[in-house]
Amino acid sequence: MFRGMEYVYEVYKEKSFSKAAANLYISQPSLSANVRRVEEKTGYPIFDRSTKPLSLTAVGRRYIHAVEQIMSIEKDFEAFINDMGELHTGSLRIGGSSFFSSWVLPPMISQFSMKYPALDISLSEAKSAVLVDMLKDGKIDFLLDNKELDTAVFDRYCIGEEQLLLTVPESFSVNQDLVRYQIPIDAIRDGSYRKASYQPVPLGKFKDYPFIILRTVNDTGSRAMRICKELNFHPDIAFVLDQQQTAYNISSSGAGIAFVGQLLLSRAPSENNLYFYKLDSEHATRNIYFYWKKARYISRAMEEFAKNIIYETKL
């Protein structure tokens, strides 16, 4: 019944016999015949050929679910076989948001790749929600993120903590009255901004100025709104964005005040047209975790990455 499942699965992915045939390098009649043989063995049609694009029947949906389970088992077994060697083959798949993929993960991956040059290491960059689904589905092995994910589904290891800070364009006149709260960029980079000598700024001082906020599906956006609510502050929102880096860039252009993580500020090229301030809220502090799926097979590559990189990293 599952002999020939690769033909069915390719048609399912492409929703087209012609596209699937091209991908498989076989003729369309040959592909159709292979799919028909599988359908004859099941006793039911897998595809509803009357719809455009092609869709699955009820039996087809169950069949594809079973195929994906088989493929997952095969991947686990391949991972096990890879462990039999000395990591002269195998793969490691890591995921991270745009920020982590740009600023945090590259040196980690480079270090690990130098030790195991034969490993195929891939980095998936996407929104957190997409990456969480990829981790759950086994499409990536590790996820680096600052969100609190379900610990019933995922194991995790904390590699550091960061704080959200305010970036305020130097052109905003309010800065002249807030000199004692301002944090030098060097203090952010070396971590000394955490000292009590740097006091949190009263958020209400910025009530007459525009803010740049991330959407609340983003942890930074969600925390920003919780901080505002906790401090009974109603920001004048000029921009609603998806990426922290974009918010930082727009703030640097002088268009508004942004909530930006200290990790980005300590790594991004220095901009001399911003002032930085601490926030008086527990929501401004968050942990950075590596996540992996519970109860999955831990490959040798994953084990070595955890031992050499994850457990040795402190941001």
UniProtKB/TrEMBL annotation:
The keyword Transcription regulation applies. Belongs to the LysR transcriptional regulatory family. Keywords: DNA-binding, Transcription, Transcription regulation. This is LysR family transcriptional regulator. The keyword Transcription applies. One of its GO terms (cellular component) is cytosol. It comes from the Bacteria. It holds the Pfam family LysR_substrate. It comes from Baileyella intestinalis. One of its GO terms (molecular function) is DNA binding. Residues 1-57 form the HTH lysR-type domain.
